[in-house]
Amino acid sequence: MKVDLYNRDFLKLLDYTSEEIRYLLDLAKDFKKKKKQGIAHRYLEGKNVALLFEKTSTRTRCSFEVASYDLGMNVSFIDSKSSQMGAKESIKDTARVLSRLYDGIEYRGFSQEIVETLALYSSVPVWNGLTDEFHPTQMLADLLTIEEKLSRLDGVSLTYMGDARNNMGNSLMIASAKMGLNFTACAPSSLFPSPALVEEAKKIAAKSGGSVTLEEDPAEAVKNADVIYTDIWVSMGESDDVWENRIKLLYPYQVNSSLFAKAKDDAIFMHCLPSFHNRETRIGNDIASRFGINEMEVTDEIFESERSVVFDEAENRMHTIKAVMYATMKKN
Ligand code: CP
Ligand code: NVA
């Protein structure tokens, strides 16, 4: 059956079938080719999109902006400090106002419930640019990158090291389950994804031929890995006070050369970014002075190695976000 995503929201991969995800990946590949060949694709000329950010961003914001410009659209960037959103105007009212002015709305912020409410009251497509629970546009970029590097998704073993109950752990588990990857979350059990979501992911994986495993032992978790993935140890919106405990819990799960030596010889390293792999950031430097560690979730050696595909991944954010906007805004 032909995939038609016109007017759909893009809030989490749980809402999308494997066929629909496949369609978005193929569309992104096509847009990437066109961009590289300098072939114009201003298919949404004159449309307007609103980009709502209650948390900071480099990749997601810039990807939505550049993808919009490439498609011939105009964008407004709106944050909670300089708009009425949140403080003086509810999400429900914001959704109804912005739907009268714009043809699509991106939202990055706190609970998944907020983006779901925004979508419920919006008459135009809403795209999730990251919530505490999910980061679905990042998933498309990651799947595209894996396919480009390993020439397949089916049967790829992906091990996620770190805080596996955050947006990235949850999303990678669902994305893997949908697309037939073997997903392993490696963390202390207190940082495993919620049992309900794990159950759901296992049911999905049973249909796709993938698998979902929770593992506390790093050596065991990476022994068959094609992809080793990690994320920062403390996510946006969490209190500064959690750093000490999180470092204690996650230091044994750092991605470094001794861990990489236990994976497959051609395993690749992935990270959604930003990353604390040296002292060259304000927070990285502050943590180094407070806790005496110069590198956190990944060592600089692995981050800068030829196994690392993090900048391909970052570029693919734009091509895949373009596919999502196009597919949900363009009437066939
Ligand atoms: N990976 C990602 O979402 O990056 P930003 O926070 O810079 O958007
Ligand atoms: N888990 C991270 C992802 C950043 C892209 C965060 O939410 O801050």
Q: How would you explain this protein's 3D organization?
A:
- With 332 residues, the chain is of the alpha/beta class.
- It is 44% helix and 13% strand.
- The chain has 13 helices and 9 strands.
- It has helices at 18-37, 59-70, 91-101, 112-121, 136-150, 167-179, 195-208, 218-222, 243-250, 257-260, 282-291, 300-303, 310-329, and strands spanning 48-53, 74-79, 104-108, 126-128, 157-161, 182-186, 211-215, 227-230, 268-271.
- The strands form 2 sheets. The protein has a 5-stranded parallel beta sheet. It has a 4-stranded parallel beta sheet with strand order 2-1-3-4, with helices on both faces.
- Helix 7 (195-208) links the parallel strand 6 (182-186) and strand 7.
- It is globular and about 55 Å long.
- The two termini are 14 Å apart.
- The mean pLDDT is 97.
Concise description?
The chain has helices spanning 18-37, 59-70, 91-101, 112-121, 136-150, 167-179, 195-208, 218-222, 243-250, 257-260, 282-291, 300-303, 310-329, and strands spanning 48-53, 74-79, 104-108, 126-128, 157-161, 182-186, 211-215, 227-230, 268-271. The chain is α/β, with parallel strands linked by helices. A five-stranded parallel sheet has the order 7-6-5-8-9. Strands 2-1-3-4 form a four-stranded parallel sheet, sandwiched between helices.
